[in-house]
Amino acid sequence: MNAKAQAVVTTIPMQEASIDIWHSKYQLKTKTGEPVDKDINATYERVAKALAEVENKSVRTQH
Fold it and tell me: How many domains does the chain have?
């Protein structure tokens, strides 16, 4: 991201409905219901790592 784009990036807070959907559909939990993903960023990291694992290593190093 260039400097101009960084200057205009704003953080939009998660809406309550969005958080509820994340909790119910996307947050990884154990069989007993304990959360594995402590926050949405942990979910992003988990998914990104899983996607990267199946990608060809030579492709990963290009980016």
Answer: 1
